[in-house]
Design goal:
The protein folds into three domains: about 210 residues, P-loop containing nucleotide triphosphate hydrolases (Rossmann fold, 3-Layer(aba) Sandwich), CATH 3.40.50.300; about 160 residues, Rossmann fold; about 55 residues, no CATH class. About 35% of the residues lie in helices and about 15% in strands. A seven-stranded parallel sheet has the order 5-6-4-7-8-3-9. Strands 12-13-11-14-15-10-16 form a seven-stranded parallel sheet, with helices on both faces. A two-stranded antiparallel sheet has the order 1-2. The longest helix is centred in the last third of the chain and has 16 residues. It binds adenosine-5'-triphosphate.
């Protein structure tokens, strides 16, 4: 484990003054119409809800469980396996500086429609009933309200049905889940009945997802598609639930389709009797959000799992971003003759044109005030507002959520330090509601399908270009419009070079009046000291593992002090010696230890 691996990754924050802000969010236009379709029905999938809490050593918590006992997203949250440092350099991206200037007035005048969004371009002309899928699947697809295929579905379905391995790239929110589930279910339904009617049937379709929320969501979608395939079932195994509970549930009701997070899946491979035998029946293996799964630290788990399933299988990799590392996975996961299907046209951006993207550079001590100001304006503009604020670590997420709650905004909080039952509850609520602000760590960054998100705010530098794109992709789904704001401190500006090819422009910093600043400062002061201590430690851990910012330790300590001041602390919190040592910061002047 590398030095900086132990701690959480963080973000920034803070109140104070500002300049002019020609309504980044005031430009929001028409309040979104509610969709006619009812929200997704609650999952009837087999998701154990028990809470397996970790033992913590305090603040930013040193987890006691072995690495193999975690799922991918927990690892990422704690920075334990996060040896992929934050570089902010996108491949093949120009490195020129970003021009400063006034925020352009972006065109927010497009309005979505009920069926296909602004231009419906995510849909193809092909209807599902024109494809070679079974009547049972077709009926389920119709019941789900899908008539035309999305472009990625149209492009991948025939190839997958031919039995080919597929690596597919398609923009966020364009129906990748159905694109892999539907043909995979077709493969399963064509298997001889004897394979399906056994007392303990083999697992024939294994889907691996980087986060629990995504795993649950994939299982819900599978359930929809399985509506008339009565002999097929789906189960979920994820972290945060008791292993024994999952074992019992798998024994009582074994299913042919398993959706899992890698850490927990590996636990079952190692500890659940008969599980490895069941995996020998895998016909189709899906790596959803493959690049996230393959981040260093998870690769070994994935390799172990791949070694547990038969070589003779079909493998599907789907993601909105396909960096070089994912292409490399073909060596361990895919057949040599796999097909790369890229639905993002050459020269087209990886983000959606109907999502307006802005960045704002402001001193750290203004961030909380700006956040409050931006949110207040957005809420006033759109009664149906639905906002996600991404923060850099779980503990910073908690801090930001607590500050904004003090400010009486309608806040929900989700991150890896919450119990799984709390996460599932918040996630379900946010999916179905409007008028809510979800403060989230990267547990919601990938794949999670919350309809009609009006605004995504990213506070502090994202892990990398891919993560920026995926987080932004929580809005503008299914062709709808959306807005994105990236709020950075001046020393985080380097990150912009990695997303320079995207249509992102600078928003001017809003002038926040002094009474608002006072209100925000008061709110910050009311937040418990413990939350601030944890956030500070997490912040330091995150930026310490950032290749650009963490390089110069004395500067890092100064920036951390700025962050601490932004939390209205006169003296930065002390950090346990052991943790400082693990971060490689034990002898750095300016840090206090306990
Ligand atoms: N053919 C279709 N017609 C209409 N809606 C569809 C169709 N296929 C999928 N959807 C819906 O589109 C939404 C987005 O799908 P999904 O979450 O699979 O997108 P995605 O491409 O995987 O996004 P991400 O990259 O964020 O993971 C979901 O609500 C899904 O139910």
């Amino acid at each position: 484990m590398a030095a900086g691996d132990l701690l959480l990754r963080t973000q920034s924050g803070l109140p104070v003054l500002a300049r002019a802000f020609p309504s980044f969010l005031c430009l929001r236009v028409p309040a979104r119409r509610r969709r006619g379709a009812p929200p997704l029905t609650a999952a009837k999938v087999d998701v154990a809800d028990a809470v397996g809490r970790r033992v913590r050593s305090g603040g930013a918590a040193v987890p006691k469980r072995r690495r193999s006992r975690r799922d991918a997203e927990e690892e990422e949250e704690e920075g334990l396996a996060f040896s992929r440092v934050v570089t902010g350099r996108g491949r093949g991206v120009r490195e020129e500086g970003v021009a400063e200037g006034e925020a352009p007035e972006f065109d927010a005048a497009k309005s979505g429609d009920e069926s296909g969004g602004v231009d419906g371009s995510y849909l193809s002309d092909t209807r599902f009933d024109q494809c070679a899928i079974s009547p049972l699947s077709l009926k389920a697809v119709k019941d789900a309200g899908y008539e035309r295929m999305t472009q990625v579905q149209e492009a991948t379905l025939p190839v997958i049905l031919q039995g080919k391995d597929v690596l597919a790239k398609a923009k966020t929110g364009t129906g990748k889940t159905v694109a892999f589930l539907l043909p995979a279910i077709e493969v399963l339904s064509a298997l001889p009945n004897s394979r399906r009617d056994q007392l303990r049937p083999s697992i024939n379709l294994l889907v691996m997802c980087p986060t629990r929320e995504l795993a649950i969501q994939v299982a819900v979608e599978a359930k929809k598609l399985l509506k008339y395939h009565r002999s097929l079932g789906v189960q979920v195994v994820i972290g945060g639930t008791r292993l024994t509970q999952e074992q019992r549930s798998m024994q009582a009701n074994p299913c042919q389709i398993l959706v899992a997070t890698p850490g927990r899946l590996k636990d079952h491979v190692e500890n659940t009797p008969g599980f490895s035998t069941r995996l020998k029946g895998v016909k189709v293996l899906v790596l959803d959000e493959a690049d996230r799964l393959l981040d260093m630290g998870f690769r070994r788990d994935i390799e172990r799992i791949i070694a547990s399933v038969p070589k003779e299988r079909q493998t599907l990799l789907f993601s909105a971003t396909v960096p070089e590392e994912v292409r490399q996975i073909s060596h361990i996961a895919m057949k040599k003759n796999y097909k790369f299907i890229n639905t993002v046209k050459d020269g087209d951006e990886e983000t959606h044109a109907q999502v307006s993207q802005m960045f704002m550079i402001a001193p750290l001590d203004l961030h909380f005030s700006i956040l409050y100001d931006v949110l207040k304006k957005h809420v006033a503009e759109d009664a149906d507002y639905k906002v996600i604020i991404f923060c850099t670590t779980a503990m910073v997420t908690k801090l930001v959520a607590e500050i904004l709650s003090q400010l009486r905004l309608n806040i929900r909080e989700i991150h890896s330090r919450k119990s799984q039952s709390a996460r599932t509850k918040v996630s379900d609520e946010f999916r179905k509601s409007r008028g809510l602000i979800l403060v989230s760590s990267d547990v919601s960054a990938r794949g999670v399908d919350y309809p009609d998100v009006t605004l995504v705010i990213q506070v502090g530098v994202p892990a990398d270009r891919q993560q920026y794109i995926h987080r932004l992709g929580r809005t503008g789904r299914k062709g709808k419009e959306g807005q994105g704001l990236l709020l950075l401190a001046p020393w985080e500006k380097y990150f912009l070079s990695s997303i320079k090819d995207l249509s992102i422009s600078e928003a001017t910093v809003p002038s926040v009046d002094s009474s608002t600043q006072t209100i925000v400062k008061d709110a910050v002061r009311k937040v418990e000291m413990r939350s601030k201590e944890c956030a500070y430690q997490a912040w330091l851990g995150y930026y310490n593992s950032n290749k650009t910012i963490g390089r110069e330790k004395s500067r890092l300590v100064k920036l951390a002090e700025e962050f601490s001041q932004s939390m209205e602390l006169s003296v930065p919190p002390a950090i346990p010696k052991q943790i400082l040592r693990k971060m490689g910061l034990n002898n750095v002047p300016g840090l206090r230890s306990t």
